[in-house]
Amino acid sequence: MVDPKFEIQMLHDRVMVKVEQESEERRSSAGIVIPATVKMANRLIWGEVCGVGASARLVKVGDKVLFNAEDQYEVEVHGQIYLVMRERDLHAIATPQSEQGTGLYL
Length: 106
Prior knowledge:
Helix content is 0%, strand content 37%. The chain contains no helices and eight strands. The strands form two sheets. Strands 6-7-1-4-5-8 form a six-stranded antiparallel β-sheet, with no helix packed on it. It has a two-stranded antiparallel sheet with strand order 2-3.
């Protein structure tokens, strides 16, 4: 018997995000190597939106978003970890162009 496949549909204003994996170590803007064991308090991270609920107003699948991963729910699908959160828990969306942006670019 073949296992049935199910499509995941997010409900309401929920957003499913795939976290961007960081490398083992980072470099500061001055070139100093920061080991992976260093934990930065209250650090926001970037991720890619993989699913949105029908009530999500500003984000869409494929958007790059900034959020705090500490208080979010994790779910594993086919060996990949995703975070599930409300749209209001997102802090920023990276867009190619914007009239009201900060002038900062990734």
